[in-house]
Design goal:
Layout: H1 2-17, H2 21-38, H3 54-60, H4 64-79, H5 86-110, H6 120-149
Length: about 150
C-alpha cells in the first residue's frame, strides 16, 4: 500500500525538481495530507511535545528519516527559484523549516504520529546538508565551466 503512495509522490518530486510549479504545490499538499490520510482522516489530535534538552537534541540527529526527507525537500524548494542568489537560498531554508513545522503539526493532528519540536533539529540538519551540497555543486559547476570554456 505504501508503494501506491510512494510512486506518485516520487513522480511529483521529480517533476518539482525540474521546476514544474504545480508539481511542487502538489508535492507539498500531498505531503501534508499524508498524515491525516494515514488515519483515514479520523483525526485524534495529540498535544505537541515542546520540551527541549541537550541530550535529546543531540539524539534527534539520529533521525535519518527526517534528515533525508528535508534534505530532498530543500533541494526541491531551491529548484523552484529562478534566481540563484543568497535570497533564494534563505527563502528555501525558511520554506523548508516552515514545512518542518507544518509536518509536526500534521503529525500531532493525526494522533497516530508524534508532534515534537525536537524533530525540527534533524529537519534543519537536512536543510543545511542540502544547502552545503547545492553550494558545492554550484562551485564545482563553475570551476568545470571555467576550465572547459577556454579549451
Amino acid at each position: 500500500m505504501k508503494l501506491l503512495i510512494f510512486i506518485p509522490f516520487l513522480l511529483l518530486g521529480i517533476l518539482a525538481i525540474r521546476r514544474i510549479r504545480w508539481a511542487y504545490v502538489a508535492f507539498v499538499v500531498f505531503g501534508l495530507l499524508y498524515f491525516p490520510a494515514s488515519v483515514r482522516f479520523r483525526v485524534d489530535p495529540k498535544r505537541c511535545d515542546l520540551t527541549f534538552d541537550l541530550t535529546a537534541a543531540v539524539q534527534s540527529l539520529s533521525n535519518f528519516g527526517h534528515i533525508i526527507s528535508f534534505f530532498v525537500f530543500f533541494l526541491i524548494t531551491a529548484a523552484q527559484f529562478r534566481q540563484r542568489g543568497w535570497q533564494s537560498l534563505v527563502w528555501s531554508m525558511a520554506l523548508t523549516m516552515a514545512m518542518g513545522v507544518a509536518v509536526e503539526l500534521a503529525e500531532g493532528l493525526s494522533g497516530a504520529h508524534n508532534c515534537k519540536t525536537l524533530d525540527l533539529i534533524p529537519d534543519f540538519a537536512g536543510a543545511l546538508l542540502g544547502l552545503i551540497i547545492l553550494l558545492l555543486g554550484r562551485k564545482l559547476a563553475k570551476v568545470w565551466q571555467t576550465r572547459h570554456s577556454g579549451a
